[in-house]
Specification:
The chain is of the alpha+beta class. It contains three helices and two strands, in the order H-H-E-E-H. The chain has one domain. The protein is flat, with a radius of gyration of 15 Å.
Length: about 60
């Protein structure tokens, strides 16, 4: 479902769509390690662009 379609949703449906969006983002989080061996959560820009583009129904580019 695209962002534009969410305007027609009731509150419960909108909440479900936002939960689905956050779940998909969380599924793409990776754990990386710094040189000091600290764990860091990360998501690639490419994955985030794809997820947001699909959700909002428009191409989103985050790269500089």
């Amino acid at each position: 479902m695209s962002y534009r379609e969410t305007f027609r949703l009731n509150r419960d449906d909108l909440e479900y769509e936002l939960m689905s969006l956050t779940d998909e983002i969380k599924e793409n989080v990776e754990w990386l390690y710094t040189v000091d061996n600290d764990e860091v959560e990360s998501i690639s820009i490419e994955n985030l662009e794809t997820i947001l583009s699909r959700f909002f129904g428009i191409k989103i580019e985050l790269k500089q």
